[in-house]
Write a structure and sequence with these properties.
The chain is of the alpha/beta class. The protein has helices at residues 15-18, 20-25, 30-38, 60-65, 82-93, 109-115, 209-222; strands at residues 5-11, 44-50, 68-72, 98-102, 122-133, 147-157, 167-174, 179-188, 191-196. The chain is globular, with a radius of gyration of 17 Å.
Length: 247
């Protein structure tokens, strides 16, 4: 039996097919690019999944065997099947699945359902970003300096309508004085969630070695412990409609 960690990298995979700027940066897709720098770790068993794949990339069988999902979405959040969202949410709450939401996935159904938030934020045109390491002793910050620069990234700025993170690992400062909570940890049920902001489709942020290291670290932090549990028969079902409580 393999002891490898089963990772699914999910991506809408739409921009790369329609926008030449994105195609030039990520010709095989953002998910495939992320896989390329993660697959150097022989302890990861990586599966690529996309919105237009059968079962929207994640069959019941695949979900059952998955330990961590990396989720990238932007232009087609509404097309994601609600039942798939509920299944992912339930497995996170049960401690069987870790979730990493990247960039525009703050507005994904999955992130909003699992964290319980609208995910709304302020945003603007691309500009220079400084990522500050606010929690250097945190496992996700391992190997990351006190700050690093991303020369061009889409502006995300406060207010960011999320619950107060359980741990805030990274904060961003943009040209013009804008700030943003760019690396947020959440505990939900028995599962873990990490939101990481860099990764706009027209920016080469995933080429940055520190961005890559943070994603590698986050996979290890969100991965399930060995104490996941099943919801007993007769208990209320988990609903994806919890977002209404935070509007």
């Amino acid at each position: 039996m393999s002891n490898k960690l089963n990772l699914v990298i999910w991506n809408e995979f739409r921009h790369e097919k329609t926008d030449p700027r994105v195609t030039a940066l990520y010709p095989l897709g953002i998910h495939a690019f992320i896989k390329k720098f993660l697959e150097q770790d022989n302890e990861l068993n990586i599966t690529l999944a996309a919105l237009d794949d059968p079962d929207q990339g994640i069959s019941d069988e695949l979900l059952e065997s998955t330990d961590v999902i990396l989720w990238w979405g932007h232009m087609a959040h509404g097309e994601v099947n609600d039942e798939l969202v509920r299944k992912i949410q339930a497995r996170v709450y049960q401690g069987k699945l870790g979730l990493i939401a990247l960039h525009s996935s703050h507005h994904s159904k999955v992130f909003k359902a699992v964290v319980g938030a609208t995910g709304n934020l302020s945003w603007g045109s691309n500009r220079k970003e400084v990522i500050w390491n606010l929690f250097p002793q945190h496992p996700i910050a391992a190997g990351i300096p006190d700050h690093f620069i991303i020369e061009e990234e889409e502006l995300y700025c406060e207010p960011f309508y999320i619950p107060q993170p359980d741990e805030l690992v990274f904060g961003a400062w943009y040209e013009g004085g804008y700030i943003f909570r760019s690396g947020c940890c959440f505990n939900r049920g028995m599962g873990k969630v990490f939101y990481f902001q860099p990764g706009h489709e027209t920016c080469p942020s995933y080429y940055n070695p520190y961005v890559q290291q943070i994603i590698k670290n986050a996979i290890q932090w969100v991965k399930p412990a060995s104490i996941g549990y099943d919801i007993p028969e007769g208990c209320p079902k988990v609903s994806a409609d919890v977002t209404d409580e935070f509007k």
